[in-house]
Specification:
Elements (H helix, E strand, L loop, with lengths): L3 E8 L3 H10 L7 E4 L9 H4 L16 E2 L12 E2 L21 H9 L7 H11 E3 L4 H5 L15 E4 L9 H11 L15 E4 L2 E4 L4 E2 L2 H6 L8 E4 L2 E8 L8 E8 L6 E11 L6 H7 L2 E2 L1 H6 L6 E2 L11 E9 L11 E4 L2 H5 L3 H22 L6 H16 L8 E8 L2 E8 L7 E3 L10 E3 L6 H19 L7 E6 L11 H11 L1 E2 L30 E3 L13 H18 L2
Parallel strand pairs: 1-2, 1-13, 2-10, 5-6, 13-24, 14-15
Antiparallel strand pairs: 3-4, 6-8, 7-17, 8-9, 11-12, 12-13, 16-19, 16-22, 16-23, 17-18, 18-19, 20-21
Helix pairs in contact: 1-15, 4-15, 11-12
The structure holds flavin-adenine dinucleotide.
The site of flavin-adenine dinucleotide has 39 residues, from helix 1, strand 11 and helix 15.
Length: 572
């Protein structure tokens, strides 16, 4: 192939990468290339269907990354799904649009990331968004929003599914949650997430198709002559300008899927890695940026000694409960009945004890997590992060939510997916070969710490309370998952854990593998998302979030990428 060169070369036409591609190519004097391993899924019904969650799993557009054996989590290997397509993981995800709690974005700033706060990010959430208002029937069935919290002119269409269940279940749930102390939240996207509500989705309501990153950010501008997307092309590694004093990337080695010959796409200004939290750190390592002890194992010479590349991996776990409806009542329509309770909501009178127990355990958690990374992450740094996280969870004045509880009445049952939002476990991801595309070692360390187990189990107990509380209880019959024969009402933690270990899965929210933090505390990128020790390499995707957030990730990733694009433009 002919050598080609662009000002900016972006790796990954996913959720974040397409925001950058769109915003940079707004400038007609700037040239942009985007390299994407997958293909267009514009006409793939597994993607466009607005009621087809899961249809794309296991197909050619699902990377289906495998973890290492999860020794704390039932000795099983978990699948971590991610999209391989123009649009990335936004083409296969659950389409939920929920942001974060304001104070947890402020915590990024408290970590030492000056300029990253809720106040700064909030306008970027709105900049990306184009809210389509609910129908009258949806409003009558509990859909509310606050116009001041939403954007109406952005590229990303957000709204409520035309198939939304508009029956009276909402009223029943609203009363039930209120009885449990979980109040109606008018708009979950205001920065205050706690409560019960019916969240919006990434959807083009008029066309009734999924609004993925391709439809929002790429296809409408795909004909710009200064933007070139390379589909079906795997990025191997960056190339470096050997004459530069500070390591300066000058291109990306790529290979088209139908070819055996790699070639280089040159970058005159910058390389931007947007390959996702389970791919961008690997591209850094394959390019010689990382832990020399790992790089040397595979004969990769160290360009930048940055040992925390791939560390700090944080994910959540997802488990499901199910219960029959009374008298086989049948439900139809999509649901999106979501509750975000606080730790106090789910632990009740135990909350003070639990808070103190977890606080006392933080030094040992920090030591355990540090040891699991071979002390590449430092216990003293982790302890300071964990104190911030503890305060977010257990604050008596403004706690963040601690769980997402998603109820789906369908057919003659009510399914309930749930996940504890803020485990303390951290793991890592590293290459296992110098050959691009070889599966990595991915270890999220699910359930490594007591809190991670206790939290997930306590949410399940809370859901049993929801099932048993009027008026919802009146609609319900017998619990089928796990069922009281499998996990009795007064089950011990060990009994709950034994069941949970056999049924849980990844919640598919990996973050922080190239965390934005000061270098002294183990950061990989600085506040302009530039990789420490490099002149012109940025990471812009879920890898840079330093902490897990309580909302689903995409809205926050769009906001981060929108802001990052402005930062890049301000440096031009
Ligand atoms: P991605 O969108 O994954 O983009 C990375 C891109 O890089 C991909 O297109 C990939 O193919 C490409 N790539 C990777 N390696 C290479 C390489 N070497 N060369 C070339 N290209 C490469 N979030 C929500 O907000 N709401 C939800 O309801 C929701 N549900 C989810 C359900 C599932 C099943 C999953 C998996 C995730 C879900 N998430 C949800 C999370 C969210 O979708 C992701 O966190 C987000 O899309 C990640 O965006 P990203 O920009 O970090 O990476």
């Amino acid at each position: 192939a002919t050598p080609v060169s662009y000002d900016y070369v972006i790796v990954g036409a996913g959720t974040s990468g397409l925001v950058i591609a769109n915003r940079l190519s707004e400038l007609s004097n700037v040239t942009v290339a985007v390299i994407e391993a997958g293909d267009s899924v514009y006409n793939n019904v597994n993607v466009s269907s607005t009621t087809g969650y899961g249809l794309a799993f296991g197909t050619e557009i699902d990377w289906a990354y495998q973890t290492t054996n999860q020794s704390f989590g039932g000795d099983v290997v978990q699948t971590m799904r991610a999209g391989k397509a123009i649009g990335g993981t936004s083409t296969i995800n659950g389409m939920a649009y929920t942001r974060a709690e304001d104070i947890q974005i402020d915590a990024w700033e408290a970590l030492g990331n000056a300029g990253w706060s809720w106040e700064v990010l909030f306008p970027y959430y709105k900049k990306s968004q184009q809210l389509q208002v609910p129908t009258e029937a949806q409003a009558a069935a509990g859909v509310t929003y606050d116009a001041a919290d939403n954007g109406f002119n952005g590229p990303l269409k957000v709204g409520w599914n035309p198939a939304l269940n508009v029956g009276d279940v909402h009223t029943v749930l609203n009363e039930t949650y209120a009885a449990l102390g979980v109040q109606w939240n008018e708009d979950v996207n205001s920065g205050r997430m706690v409560g019960y509500n019916r969240y919006p989705s990434h959807i083009d309501v008029a066309l009734n198709v999924r609004e993925d990153a391709g439809r929002a950010y790429y296809y409408p501008i795909a004909n710009r002559t200064n933007l070139h997307l390379y589909p079906n092309t795997l990025a191997h590694r960056m190339t470096w300008d050997t004459t530069a004093q500070i390591p300066t990337a000058n291109g990306v080695v790529v290979q088209a899927v139908n070819s055996t010959t790699p070639y280089t796409i040159s970058a005159n200004k910058e390389v931007i890695l947007s390959a996702g939290a389970l791919a961008s750190p690997l591209l850094l390592e394959l390019s010689g940026v990382g832990n020399p002890a790992i790089l040397s194992k595979y004969n990769i010479s160290t360009v930048v000694d940055l040992p925390t590349v791939g560390e700090n991996l944080q994910d959540q776990t997802n488990t499901g409960l199910a219960i029959d409806t009374a008298d086989n009542t049948s439900y139809s329509g999509t649901s999106d009945y979501v509750a975000y309770p606080t730790a106090a909501d789910i632990f009740g009178s135990e909350i003070t004890n639990i808070s103190a127990t977890v606080l006392a355990a933080l030094p040992s958690y920090a030591a355990t997590v540090a040891a699991a990374s071979g002390n590449v992450t430092k216990a003293s740094d982790l302890l300071s992060f964990f104190k911030i996280q503890h305060e977010l969870i257990f604050s008596t004045t403004h706690p963040v939510p601690i769980a997402e509880v998603l109820l789906t009445p369908s057919g003659t049952a009510v399914d309930c997916e749930y996940w504890a939002l803020l485990p303390f476990a951290r793991g890592n991801i590293h290459i296992t070969s110098a050959t691009p595309g070889v599966p990595a070692a991915i270890n999220p360390n699910y359930y490594m710490l007591d809190w991670d187990v206790t939290g997930q189990i306590q949410v399940a107990k809370f859901i049993r309370e929801i099932f048993a509380t009027a008026p919802f209880a009146g609609l319900l019959g017998t619990e089928t998952k796990p069922g009281f024969d499998v996990v009795p009402q007064n089950a011990t933690t060990a009994q709950w854990q034994a069941w949970n270990n056999g049924v849980y899965r990844s919640n598919f929210h990996p973050v922080a593998t190239a965390a934005m933090m000061p270098k002294e505390v183990g950061g990989v990128v600085d506040t302009s998302l530039k990789v420490y020790g490099t002149a012109n390499v940025r990471v812009i995707d879920a890898s840079v979030l330093p902490f897990q957030v309580c909302g689903h990730l995409v809205s926050t990733l769009y906001a981060v990428a929108e802001r990052a694009a402005d930062l890049i433009k301000s440096e031009m």
